[in-house]
Amino acid sequence: MTTTFIGGGNMATALIGGLVARGRAAATFSVVEPFAAQREKLAARFPGIGLHAGCDAAAVAGAELVVLAVKPQQMRAAATALAPHVAGAPAVVLSIAAGIRLADLGRWLGGHPRLVRAMPNTPALVGKGVSGVFAPPTVDAAGRALAAAVLEAGGEVIWVPDEPMLDAVTGVSGSGPAYVFYFLEALEQAARELGFADGDARKLAYATFAGAVALAQASPEPPATLRAQVTSKGGTTERAVASLEADAVKAKIVAAVKAAAERARELGDLLGNDG
Fold first, then answer.
1. In 7-139, where does DSSP find H-type helix?
2. Are 29 and 165 in contact (CB under 8 A)?
3. pLDDT 10s digits, 212-223
4. If you average pLDDT over residues 218-236, what whole number do you get?
5. Measured between alpha carbons, how far is residue 63 from residues 30, 51, 55, 60, 124 in Å?
6. CATH 3.40.50.720 domain position(s) in the chain
7. Which class for 199: exposed (0-12), middle (13-18), buried (19 or more C-beta within 10 A)?
């Protein structure tokens, strides 16, 4: 199996690194990366990898999977450059760019039918991500498996039944790390204001969050039950949760996620506009 990445930035590097760690040979990858400094980094990290300054026939030759790992604003140009090299070829083209819909991508690729769209998140950089993925009926089980194998190198994969659900994925998990960092920021600030030094404040915040997530993942109970189990009547946690509820924090978080999902839909309209 050979795989070509269009774009050799952080996400592409993370996915290639995950696949190499699983036993894939670096020589089975080609990367189209216009910046020489980044090509040098890739060459040093993955000896034997194929590197190309531009998208040409040699970069895509024999590829079963082509991963479009460029910024959404660069996608039209990248797809237009790729189009003549996948015309009539059986390669699956996987987009991991936010907001780019398959109808638009397919148009830019000259009608290429074997398209998969994914929305990963930044924890994929450390192998702890989650990707929402959609493929139309024009992609068979083998094609889906090719896409899943790459995405699983960055973490978990969730297939969604229809493409608009990827906007919801963007709101929940695509933007989700920022929500977590926001909460960590607040928890760390509270610890400092209560007298802890910066290093200890951060350690308390990070360990508390990581431990709570690990505990939740190890338990069959939903988060609401776990929260109730550590909320003693008349205790400190009850006071804290009551303060959060009084300020409607949960409702505001839900509203924020929905706002992010709506913005993802808007960006899809904007980025797909050929005007």
1. 10-21, 36-45, 57-60, 75-86, 102-108
2. no
3. 999 999 999 999
4. 96
5. 9, 14, 13, 6, 23
6. 3-162
7. exposed
**pTM (2 decimals)?**
0.91
CB under 8 Å to 243, separation ≥6 — which residues? none
Across 25-49, average pLDDT: 97
Q: E strands along the chain, which residues?
A: 3-6, 29-32, 50-52, 65-68, 92-95, 115-119, 129-134, 155-159
CA–centroid distance for 123 within its chain: 7
- Tokens linked to 179: 């929500």
Taking residue 78's Cβ as centre, other Cβ atoms within 10 Å add up to 22
Pair 124, 15: CB distance under 8 Å? yes
- Tokens 């996915």 belong to which residue? 15
Burial 224-251 (b: 16+ CB within 10 A, else e): eeeeeeeeeeeeeeeeebeeeeeeeeee
Domain with CATH 1.10.3730.10 in the chain: 176-265
Structure tokens at 133: 């993925």
The CATH number assigned to the domain with range 3-162 reads: 3.40.50.720
CATH code of domain 176-265: 1.10.3730.10
Q: What is the pLDDT of residues 132-166, one digit of tens each?
A: 999 999 999 999 999 999 999 999 999 999 999 99
Tokens of 192: 């400092």
> If pLDDT is split at 50, 70 and 90, which confidence band does 275 have?
low
